[in-house]
Write a structure and sequence with these properties.
Two copies of one chain form a homodimer. Chain A has 141 residues and is mainly alpha-helical. In chain A, 62% of the residues lie in helices and 6% in strands. Chain A has helices at 12-25, 38-45, 49-61, 78-102, 107-125, 133-140, and strands at 65-68, 72-75. The first copy, chain A, is elongated, with a radius of gyration of 19 Å. Chain B binds a DNA duplex (30 and 30 nucleotides) through helix 2 and helix 3.
Chain lengths: 141, 141
DNA sequence: TAAGTGTACTAAGAGTGTTAATACAAAATA
DNA sequence: TATTTTGTATTAACACTCTTAGTACACTTA
């Protein structure tokens, strides 16, 4: 379910928080779905249960999950999570642009990069482009 | 010359490295310009000289500066620094796009964000847009 | 010669993250 | 009902990194 990166500078509990958050955002973990138990996930990742407990506590503090003693931990309202992720992405982009401008990058160059990378990733993941949507809907007729 | 952020998760020596690197990239520190001495910068930032020494050692390891015992530390070839910064920015953008796609953002939305943020930052810094370049060159006649 | 420079080294302290070992309350289950 | 499973809390210990402190040495410059 989760892969840890020990080369990552961030602590394990924070990686777990981010990974689980992403799984909720992309829909793998749906609303009210049960998360693996603290001890089970700890065993699965070969780390201490306390570390998972810390991750779950953080997720609950942020309102991403809710926990019930004796029952388990469950995914909270996903729409608010998605909204938060959206604002985080916007914030990161703003910082990036700020840095890019200082480094002398042009707006045109950035747009080119975005376009190129977008199609490249769609090619890698076998995703369909907007341009191809027409052909796709043809099949459905 | 440099402002430290003690709320930042990154260690001080790494912040110093990044700040100095940025100063070289944006042209404040030109090629072969002398950097402040280890002890002077340490006093200026109110931190231990060892910490600055570590930052300078890292900068030299990366080929951004060269140091001469008894003389001082100086800015190395800035073009290679700029090239590296460019590839770093590209890499960061790729990661961001990957995350944005997973979160369900559309390419159009991203382009809109880039355009909006670009003009906003130019407005904040009093920078001139490409569209205004004609008027600017008029003045020079 | 004296002052300023980079560089090296050891020791100590502080902070954080992680593990370990229990323990308890509540819910689910056999 | 008894057992298991769940979340939660607590304390101690350990490891790792960052930072500071103090000292020392070689080299360049004024």
């Amino acid at each position: 379910m989760i892969l840890l990166d020990y080369k990552d500078r961030r602590p394990i509990y924070e990686q777990v928080v981010e990974k689980l958050k992403d799984l909720m955002i992309c829909g793998v973990l749906e609303q009210d779905a049960q998360l693996p138990s603290v001890r089970a996930l700890a065993t699965d990742l070969s780390i201490n249960p306390n570390t998972i407990q810390r991750a779950y506590a953080e997720l609950e503090r942020r309102g991403f999950i809710y926990s019930v003693k004796g029952r388990g931990s469950f995914v909270a309202d996903t729409s608010s999570i998605r909204a938060l992720k959206n604002s985080e992405l916007k914030k990161d982009l703003v910082s990036w642009i700020q840095e890019a401008k200082r480094a002398g990058l042009t707006e045109d160059k950035v747009h080119t990069w975005v376009v190129e990378e977008w199609v490249r990733q769609e090619y890698l993941t076998g995703e369909e482009r907007e341009d191809d949507k027409s052909r796709e809907s043809d099949k459905k007729i």
